[in-house]
Write a structure and sequence with these properties.
By secondary structure, the chain is mainly alpha-helical. 73% of the residues lie in helices and 0% in strands. The chain has 6 helices and no strands.
Amino acid sequence: MTSQPPSDAGSAVPAPPSPWNLPNALTVLRILMVPIYGWLLLTDEGNDVDMRWWACGVFVLAMITDRLDGDIARARGLVTDFGKLADPIADKALTGMGFIGLSLIGDLWWWVTFLVLFREIGITVLRLVIIRYGVMPASRGGKLKTTLQAVALGLMTAPLGGLWETSAIVVMAAAVAVTLATGVDYVLKARAMVVAGRS
């Protein structure tokens, strides 16, 4: 009696999800909203109150898409390498526009913008350099950093004063601290990935 070859049906590796999906579409939409936010914020050098409110609305909507794309991707198993790479880039483009725009209209110190953008650009370049060893996803600290930056930039974009302005400065200070700390953490993780990949 001849033996049957073992079936490999149970060990088949599922095909990775297509990058053409809703979460990635939301990520691309967020990137497209960046110039719209910037134009609204910079209209009349930031002195048009109505435009500032519109800018704040666009910014908040863009950050909502950031939450939605991640939740949908995880819930439906649509996490892709494109999403892991494009999502943080979209976040950095939006927040970068916020930092630069607010500094251009005099609502945020330029040294804060330079410090944050140096970290953000540096980590983005680092991700691209080590991509041969794998995609480095956003960490919990990185997500906290994005949340703090988003809250601070949203408060500063809205034409509010008094206690709201003070709150924005406090949140921004926390965002800068977490931004620098997570930058160091990403560098250490990247080094570990390179060492593991070469061994």
